[in-house]
Amino acid sequence: MKKYIYILVCLPFMAWSQQVLKGHIYEANQTNKNYPLVGANVYWLNTEIGAVTDLDGSFSIPYQSNYKNLIISYVGYKTDTLKIKSSKDLKHWLKPTSSLDEVAITARNKSTFASYLKAENVMTMSSDELLKSACCNLCESFETNPSIDVNFADAITGTRQIKMLGLNSPYILTAIESVPTVRGAAQIYGLSFVPGTWVESIQVTKGTGTVINGFESIAGQINAKLQKPVEDSKLFLNLYGAANGRLELNTHLNTKVSDKLYTGLYLHGNLRNQKFDNNNDSFLDVPLAEQINIMNRWQYVDLEKGIVSFLNVRILNDEKQTGQVNFSPDSDRFSTTYWGSEIDTKRLDVSGKFSYANQDITHRNFDAQANFSTHNQQSYFGQNIYNINHNSLYSRAIYSSILSNTMHKFKTGINFSLDHYDEITGIYSNTSNYEREENSIGAFFEYNYDNLGAFNLTAGIRVDNSNLLGVFVTPRLNVRYTPWSRGSLKASLGRGKRSANIFAENQNMFASSRSINIVNSNGNIYGLDPEIAWNYGLSFMQGFNLFGRTADVVFDFYKTDFKNQVVVDWENPNQISFYNLNGTSYANSFQTEFNYNVLRGLDLRLAYKYYDVKTTYTSGKLEKPLTPKHRLFANTAYKTKVKSNGAQWKFDATYNWLGEQRSPSTTVNPELYQLPDYTPTVATVNAQITKVFSKAFEVYAGAENITNTRIQNPILGADNPFGDYFDTTLVYGPIFGSSYYLGLRYRLN
Amino acid sequence: MKNLLVLITLFVSAMSFAQNKNAKTTLQVNGVCEMCKARIEKACIKTKGVKSANWNLDTHELSLVYNENKTDLKAIKQSVLNAGHDLKDEKAPDEAYNKLHGCCKYRDEKVLDAH
Fold first, then answer.
1. What's this model's pTM, rounded to 2 decimal places?
2. Contact (CB<8Å) A93/B52
3. Among the CATH numbers 1.10.760.10, 3.40.50.1820, 2.60.40.1120, 3.30.950.30, which is that of A2-104?
4. Which of B34, B63, B101 is nearest residue A80 as measured by Cβ atoms?
């Protein structure tokens, strides 16, 4: 009898006791030595059961006989799926990756990662990174990325600009789905016209980058990939409300039309109708705004034939009102009672893409793209009018194949672009018209060599014939060498050329009493010559283990050397001048970054940046105004373990510190309207908490500028906006103090 | 016009006699991990005339595209064998096999189990 009691007592224990699979994960290398990989993810396919390897690469994970596929993943290494037949101890060697895409699809990865193996210095930001701040649009999504600086919102329009390598956004080629989009009339506000939730991932390339996307990139390239109807949730809903009066709503609806055809409808609306003037300068701290943005995306997939195509239509209507609190557009427009401004933008984009991959000869691909956009901005700033109409057509065909074998790949093709600009500017009673048409036809060839080991190279060249820029050659080169395990040395070199849209790119000048002075030198664009620059870069990345957890350190040095530049001269407070560079202009930047996985789920990123940006102005060689020499950046993110229902907490905080910045000269102004030579330093902290309740539902709350940092008098001469000393362009820090927001995301798959 | 048609017909038939520049074939190659995959593919690609090589870890199938004017299947097979990987009907020389990394010793039952 006693025997049976023993058995009964033991039974529950048996049921509870679980089998465990143990093993070791090593790095696969040429030397036949076992280097343990610390912090590699090991988990069962389609389950939430996982483990992370220890100091010696060992792990143990619960095992049941119905678990068949064990996935082993580690950033910078190929993800392997192992078929497990029993709970025998396991040893596995992971191989470093040769392609980014393979890392990008794993279930648990870093939200932003640089590739050890690509020749270009590319960082990929996944949608995980984009969720770190409640980024409402593409511009704000760079706030947690140290390679891109997001400027403080402009005093009038509230728009934020991005910078790379110390150069502002016109020198960055910003593409959506690889088509240069944020340019021309859309240069300044374009990033804020792409809602954050529409973006699937972003690739940021430092240096001139590939020739395939054109000749305009100088400091870098940004490519945003949009959500695909095939992969996005059936229904996605995002609601956001902030104490600064901003309300946003995003809705995605995706459906399958037939086996091969999918469609998605993406709706975005934002609204701010509350007036704030916390610094009592009689001007709104943030503009009143209203935006409706609708995109319809069609995706056709025929895997048997190797065909994928997209068709997108996007309509945008954006309205902003800003200026003095008491300004009323109907009664005060162009009057001198109250200073005010309205910016109305309407835009239509239609784009199509067709890709064909040869199913017999798999290394052959063909891609064709065509885009049309019409962008119309009607605006006035006090008594200054600025209207721009920009119609743009872009088309491109790319053929990719190999030379003798897959170690030698190439891409070649042609593209054609046509831009028509029609601008009206001046005081409302006396405006002038600027009209120009720019067209270019170009052919490009890019060669990639991969020795299947420590070295690879991408060399590209393109020849363009443009009606305004002439016939010219654009060479680009990127090289990667791996001197030792987990080290990566990259070098790049390239030339860029572009026409400066002086009005569209410097719209903030209209909100000042400055007169516009264009020094005509009989060039083709506003009487000015095209800008030409060379960019050289060197980057080194080393991965290592620190106290048994993964870390990496990056050193970047980039130099941009202008052969010609359209100099924007703010040094006379009554005037803004544009002239061709006569002398030197360069931007040197150094960045060091340290990434560390401190604990399971806790990541730390620290960066320091040094910029030396100087230009020869008519008044001499000077530091670029409002560009800090020193910058510090810190970001820390913590995630709790995901529960079986998907529930999780996420915490994120970002610290930014900017050194002093040179103010443009105001010495000719009366003392009351003079600025100190250098601005004070500025530091800001943002933080966000996300509570994921399940895979379908999450709530987030956050604070921007927690320490309530504010600059004292963002607008010079705010007491007399129609006087001679009015200037809203001198913003070096936040205008709006701390603000809090709350949002939710709901998705149905 | 008629002459042109004759010419085209002649040309097309001449082409079909020429050897295939993009010959496709598959081979069964033994291996066990991602390192093996890299080694097998590298051995093929470094063989003159091979355009692309893709080895599937699960099915052990090696898909090849090669130019028949420049190489033949025998030469490609020899490259794979010299890299230390067995084919379905032919064994790699032992000295090549012995050079493989510990985790790639696919003839060893223990290594196979570990994967």
1. 0.81
2. no
3. 2.60.40.1120
4. B34
